[in-house]
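Many introductory courses stop at the sequence. We go one step further.
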Amino acid sequence: MCRKVTHTLPVPILTLLLSLWVPPQLSGQFLTVEIEVPSEVNATVESNLSFGSVVAGNGISRVELGDMGMGVFGINGLTGQRLHFTLNLPERLTATDPAITATIPIRMEAALVDFGVNDYRLARPFTLPTEDVTIQPPPNAPGQNWSSVFLYLYGEVEVGNIPNATYSGEIVLDILYD
């Protein structure tokens, strides 16, 4: 059996108590506190993509995932942070000498590791040209606040009968984050 216990205070005494507790003049001070903690993401080029020296007319020259010529972006951010990557890739490499109009076709592939370990053997394919990623902590430090994503770039060029020159292109990584 449950019993409800109610304590009451007679009204005249309540009025007297309220008049004793309330000061005759009330004033209030308000302080508004705002703080903005921006998410921080930074990206660096760990290694440029390089096909090295190739012979004109030699056909296809390829850099594989894990080769020394592979390009690598390192992206640091807060664990759990959502990122949207867009890779803007060239379709052709152009000569650095403006007098040469020949170009070299390039086909790119990409892979990434999203849990703080720079090891291409652990990479999963990156769907070109965009990918959504959530930064994960490294397996050996699950409580870590900061972690990294590593984006690996590789592919092939088809070198036809072109003038000897240095040919280059620009790969731009755009990152949107929450």
